[in-house]
Amino acid sequence: MTLLPNQDLDEILIPFADMVQQLVDYGEPLEDTSSHQAMMIERVKVEMPVEIKVLVDEDGKATLKSHAPTQSTETTIMPVFHRMKLTVELEDEKSVG
User: Fold this and answer.
1) Which residue from 34, 42, 48, 72 has the highest number of Cβ atoms inside 10 Å of its Cβ?
2) 31 DSSP β-pair partners
3) Which of 94, 97, 89 is CA-nearest to residue 43?
4) What is the helix (H) or strand (E) element at residue 44, kind and residue range?
5) Is residue 51 in a domain?
6) What is the pTM of this model?
7) Residue 26 placed within a domain
8) Residues paired with 32 in a beta bridge
9) Would residue 1 count as lying in a domain?
């Protein structure tokens, strides 16, 4: 994503927890009612660069905001990209107890 000319970085950054939720929200299994077959994602592994900004409010409460890299053209002053690795795997219902 590239910033628009009058767009502030804070406008496109979202809370870090929301970004993680978007990465792992795959919804319900895909089902074909005519063939009675279904496809379900059992494991997802994501590795990607992330821009993270720490915001501190007047009370000292820190909030992490993040987004996929917003700058596609390399310049002399690049934002700091953090590397995020995330693995989400379904647990066997028997082991959950």
Assistant:
1) 48
2) 38
3) 89
4) strand 43-56
5) yes
6) 0.52
7) yes
8) 37
9) no
CB 11 within 8 A of CB 41: no
Instruction: Output the pLDDT for position 38.
Output: 84
Classify residue 30: in a domain, yes or no: yes
Per the structure, the complete domain to which residue 81 belongs is given by 9-90
Which structure tokens are listed for 41? 């994602």
Q: What is the pLDDT of residue 3?
A: 43
Report pLDDT for 27.
73
Q: What's at 16, amino acid-wise?
A: F
Mean pLDDT per 10-residue run, the chain (97 residues)?
A: 50 80 78 86 83 87 82 67 82 61
Torsion of CA 9, 65, 13, 27, to 10 degrees: 170
Distances (CA, A) of 40 to 9, 27, 65: 36, 9, 30
Give ∠ CA 69-79-16 in degrees, rounded to 5.
Answer: 55
Number of domains in the chain: 1
